[in-house]
Structure formats: C-alpha cells, structure tokens
C-alpha cells in the first residue's frame, strides 16, 4: 500500500536506504561477512566471460555491473540488450556464464535468450526481485534483490538493489579469487544508505530543479563520462517514460560528434560529475553546450564540486556513485512529471512487465 504517499514511485524512491540495509543483511553470514551461494561463486570463477542480458532500466544496471565485476573480480563482461541478443548473438567465449537481470523475472525478451542459451548448454544466473518468477525458475541459479514489491511502472528501488547485489556478487567473487578489495563493501554500502537518506530529504531541491529546467521544455540531455554516462542513460529513460519529455543520455565527449546540433537557447543539459579523473573533461563538455545556449544543471559530488553546481551529492566510494547519483535523476523525473500533469505511476503505453517480444 502506498499509505500517505501520493504515488508508489515516490514511496519506492524513499524506500531505497532501507532496501540497501536489508540487502546487506540478507547477504551477510553469521560473522557479518558478505556471502553468496558457493555454486554461484563457482560458476563465476569457471567463466572466462560473463554475458549480462537485460532490458530497460535493468540493462542500465548491467552496464554499471560490468564495471563492478571487471574492476573487482577481474572477469571480462559484455552487456547486451535482450531483444537484440537472440538474433544478433556475438561470437561467444569458450566458457560463458549468462547473467539475466530482471526486476520482474518475466520479461519475454530476456526469457527468449535464456531458453536459447540453455539449449546451447550454457549456465545461467538470474538476478531478480521476484522469487519463483519465470526467469528465476528456468535459470540454474538465482540471486534475489530483496527490494520488496515494486509497483510503479518506473523502476527505482529495483535499479539500486540490482547495483547493490551486483556489487556484492563482484566483491565475493573477487575475494574467492584472492583479489583483495581496497574497501569494505559492507561499510561502503552503509555509507551509501546514509547518503541516500540525505538525498531523499532534499526533495525540495529536486522539485525546484524540475520546475526550473523541465516544466516547459521539449527535450533534455543527460551527459556524463564513465559510470556517470550510464546513470545519464537511466536518467533519460526515467524522464522520458513518466514526463514524456524527449530525453537522451550521452557520453560527454560524444555530444560534439553530431548531437550538439540539437542544443538551442535554453535546452536543459543535466551533467553528472562524480568521477575525479573525468571531472575536468565533463565540465569542458558543459562549457561547450553552454556556449551554444544550453541551460546546464550540474550534479556533482562532494570533493569535486565547483562554483555554480546545482546540487552536490554526499561522497561515497567512487565505484558506487551510481547508487546515489541516480536518486536526483529519479526525483527530478518525478517532479517533472508532476509539473506536467502526467500519470506518474501508470505512464501511457507502458506496462510494469513486458511479457511480449
Ligand atoms: O522486469 P525487468 O527488469 O525485466 O523489466 C525491464 C524493463 O522493462 C524495465 O526496466 C523498464 O525499462 C522500466 N519501466 C524502466 O523504468
């Protein structure tokens, strides 16, 4: 039930700190160390390459998950859109492991790929919010999100839960391979949960950003580099699906290769800047669009902020920033949809789970 909340989406955004803490608890052993079913860790270690298959928001979580797995566990990862993979299969490695990410566990496009790769004799792991869902039943292994039911069509808490579970999977796999993490993930996810709380308490700021930048605009761009780019893709999807504003996520450096032609006087460009090593480059990209009349809105992170940034998120581990930088995207989209009188929880033309191919 949504209780005192006007919309499920807002309730589910607010649940994220709690979900983080629940996930950590669910994946801790009696000594407090993170653990994942040993068969799953074995399957990860047996793989020479991991293929993540997903759609929509879950695909965006997969892009970040690739960074986690490659950086922490040092296993190569490819991320594919499920609706493309079936008929456009890349040349597979010798020992692939397939990882399906799906909130509902019912997405037909993903299921079609699962059936295909099982027929080929490959192993599959499903990361889902729904125990007993089709993708969970048909895969060899399942990891649950423990996010609680997600009712709003726009996925929010499932995305951050997917990232947390992927980080845990990467971390536990890394340890099993003798790779020492530079941080304690339990502690870092605790810091993430606290930072999420700070952001959920800053709703007025995001409401005012939505009013200022998105109340009347026709379109909007999201830019970032590295994992900030992936969060930009998710920000654009969120904004499109609930506010019907034409939105695109772009790698900061790619905009000038064509799309910058769309920048007009007042075009909102939301820039995400949470990564030290590309902080100056993304800010250079902001200058490029500002010089062409764009209305930039920079969301940066403590320690990297500069004059004129519109919002500064609390500092978290640099690999885990998508877990919190996505919250401004969710809340800005939510308030943009409200300002434009859209049906937040049930956007037009969409269903919660897409069970047709
Ligand atoms: O249930 P799934 O995670 O497999 O769903 C995949 C997409 O249909 C879903 O993420 C969709 O993009 C959301 N409406 C995004 O908010």
TrEMBL record:
Its EC number is 2.6.1.16. It comes from the Bacteria. One of its GO terms (biological process) is protein N-linked glycosylation. It is an enzyme of class 2 (transferase). The gene is glmS. The keyword Cytoplasm applies. Residues 40-179, 209-347 form the SIS domain. One of its GO terms (cellular component) is cytosol. The active site is at 352 (for fru-6p isomerization activity). It is found in: Cytoplasm. Keywords: Aminotransferase, Cytoplasm, Glutamine amidotransferase, Repeat, Transferase. GO terms for molecular function: carbohydrate derivative binding; glutamine-fructose-6-phosphate transaminase (isomerizing) activity. Catalyzes the first step in hexosamine metabolism, converting fructose-6P into glucosamine-6P using glutamine as a nitrogen source. This is Glutamine--fructose-6-phosphate aminotransferase [isomerizing]. Homodimer. It comes from Mesobacillus campisalis. It catalyses: D-fructose 6-phosphate + L-glutamine = D-glucosamine 6-phosphate + L-glutamate.
């Amino acid at each position: 039930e949504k209780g005192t909340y006007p919309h499920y989406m807002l309730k589910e955004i607010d649940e994220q700190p709690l979900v983080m803490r629940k996930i950590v608890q669910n994946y801790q052993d009696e000594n407090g160390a993170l653990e994942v079913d040993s068969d799953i860790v074995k399957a990860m270690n047996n793989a020479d390459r991991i293929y993540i298959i997903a759609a929509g928001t879950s695909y965006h979580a997969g892009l970040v998950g690739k960074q986690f797995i490659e950086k922490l566990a040092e296993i190569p990862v490819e991320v594919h859109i499920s609706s493309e993979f079936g008929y456009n299969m890349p040349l597979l490695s010798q020992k692939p492991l397939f990882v399906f990410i799906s909130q509902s566990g019912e997405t037909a496009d993903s299921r079609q790929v699962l059936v295909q790769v099982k027929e080929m004799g490959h192993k599959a792991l499903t990361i889902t919010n729904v125990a007993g869902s089709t993708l969970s039943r048909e895969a060899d292994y399942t990891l649950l999100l423990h996010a609680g039911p997600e009712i709003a069509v726009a996925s929010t808490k499932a995305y951050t839960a997917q990232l947390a579970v992927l980080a845990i999977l990467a971390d536990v796999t890394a340890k099993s391979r003798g790779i020492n993490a530079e941080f304690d993930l339990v502690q870092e996810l605790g810091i993430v949960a606290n930072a999420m709380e700070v952001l959920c308490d800053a709703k007025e700021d995001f409401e005012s950003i939505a009013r200022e930048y998105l109340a009347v605009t026709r379109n909007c761009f999201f830019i970032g580099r590295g994992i900030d780019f992936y969060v930009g893709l998710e920000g654009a999807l969120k904004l499109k699906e609930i506010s019907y504003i034409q939105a695109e996520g772009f790698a900061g450096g790619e905009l000038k290769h064509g799309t910058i032609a769309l920048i007009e006087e007042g075009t909102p460009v939301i820039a995400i800047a949470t990564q030290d090593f590309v902080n100056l480059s993304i800010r250079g990209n902001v200058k490029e669009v500002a010089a062409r009349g764009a209305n930039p809105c920079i969301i940066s992170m403590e320690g990297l902020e500069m004059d004129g940034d519109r919002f500064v998120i609390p500092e978290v581990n640099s690999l885990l920033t998508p877990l919190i930088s996505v919250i401004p995207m969710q809340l800005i989209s939510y308030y943009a949809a409200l300002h434009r009188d859209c049906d937040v929880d049930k956007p037009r033309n969409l269903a919660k789970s897409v069970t047709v191919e």
